[in-house]
Amino acid sequence: MAELLTTEQYKKLAKELKFPSKSIIDGAPVSAASGRTYSTYNPATGELLAQLPACGAQDVDTAVACARSAWADGRWAKRHPADRKRALLRLADLIEQHALDLSILESLDSGKTIFDCQTVDLPETVNCLRWHAEAIDKIYDQVSPPSNDHIALIVREAIGVVGLVLPWNFPLLMLAWKIGPALAAGCSLIVKPAEETSLTALRVAELALEAGIPPGILNVVTGSGPEVGEPIGRHPDIDVVSFTGSTETGRRFLKYAAESNLKEVVLEMGGKNPCIVMDDAEDLDSVASHVVNGAYWNMGENCSAISRLIVHADVKQRLIEKIIALAESWHVGDPLDPRNRIGPLVSEEHFGKVQSYLGQGERVLYGGTTSEGRFVHPTILELEHNRVRPAREEIFGPILSVITVDSLQEAVEVANDTDYGLAASVFTANGKRALRAARSLKAGTVTVNSFGEGDITTPFGGFKQSGFGGRDNSLHAHDQYTQLKTIWLDLSGSETGEL
């Protein structure tokens, strides 16, 4: 684990940081064509961090033209796979060298705790880029043997120009999840970071140039969803858009694609993730630890967060007591204090949305409070059934809803009674029950006797309204940035008649 500093040391380093202030297009820092800017603030203090370009459709056009030119001349796509691998590995090394500064920058811009930034996000970002870099020269194409007179080659080709639209909850890590396989495939990229959290993406684009990734390959265009996101979604010269964010916005990208060039769209969207705990679950202390981490990590601003605890009546009270005891140790406050585990929510708008789920009439078992500066304290709500608003909607905050059941069948039925299907967990000591439940749960990732999302080797994505079109992580992530081509070779009709 990275060495943690004191709050005072982090704040001293924060004052010395140089904040990016330009978009990166064709390898150069640029202002918006309109000259307009917008402000990005520290969610914990309200302090102005930087003025960033408020780009628009003209800037997207420029970035796409540069990316298409870079794609056409093969400066990246046609480089030897080993050369691309070395450049991507150098980028990972540079991010690791600048990990402390990037951690502080991420914390200041998003409200994420420095503890999470330094111990989770930065190490996983580096690992993600290295993993995909190492895969570049190890993914083999295929040969189909249709007959003795024919050979069919099945080859992957980079799809071309890619639009990557990022969320604000994991700005750096989601950037890595997308640029890792996209760069590994040989694509040229237009990255739109979230308007609220653009700083680390801009810094990584600067480091990519230093690593040897050519100009025009990794372009970062800052601005709002309507001004930058929609032009990316509608652009006729973008071949695929990979989007992570809300289901509502994901629907828009499908519309944009349908109304433009029918570009491929990959969606990773919301979740309303269940955690089933049965009466035979072993070690309730361990279960409670997983539930608390799953519900409150990253302030609950996590699409795969445990949102619904579906617990058997026989163990409910004991488990809730253990969860509350652990939740009390998750301190709320200044994200640059490494002792704190809960920072502010990312924006005033989002704070208002999360706060609206408090005082809905459900019984508050724990928490239910807020404090000045967009802080929502860890909360547990007891729900009578699965049809009320906190059970149906993605809250995206540190609020855990508890629903009581009397059987595994009832638990699975409640778990699947949602529009979403991103992640799920089940805790039981019976292996057969665990596997039957895992097979029955409608979710892209199901963990047994643990909370988690797998790792870089396992595909991440959801069912139903949680998304479709591709997966992040694992070798499957490369599929969304490549196309399959069949090359059919006819070997018949030899003039000599031999063989």
Describe it:
- With 499 residues, this protein is an alpha/beta fold.
- Helices cover 37% and strands 22% of the residues.
- The chain has 15 helices and 24 strands.
- The chain has helices spanning 7-16, 57-72, 81-97, 99-110, 114-135, 171-185, 199-211, 225-234, 247-259, 284-296, 313-327, 348-355, 389-392, 408-416, 431-440; strands spanning 23-25, 28-30, 37-41, 48-53, 142-147, 150-158, 161-165, 188-192, 218-220, 240-244, 264-268, 273-277, 306-312, 363-366, 370-371, 375-376, 379-382, 399-405, 420-421, 423-427, 445-448, 463-464, 467-468, 482-490.
- The strands form seven sheets. Strands 14-17-18-13-12-20-21 form a seven-stranded mixed beta sheet, with helices on both faces. A six-stranded mixed beta sheet has the order 9-8-7-10-11-23, sandwiched between helices. A three-stranded antiparallel beta sheet has the order 5-6-24, with no helix packed on it.
- Helix 7 (199-211) links the parallel strand 8 and strand 9.
- Helix 2 (57-72) packs parallel to helix 8.
- It is globular.
- 51% of the residues are buried.
- The model has no long low-confidence stretch (mean pLDDT 96).
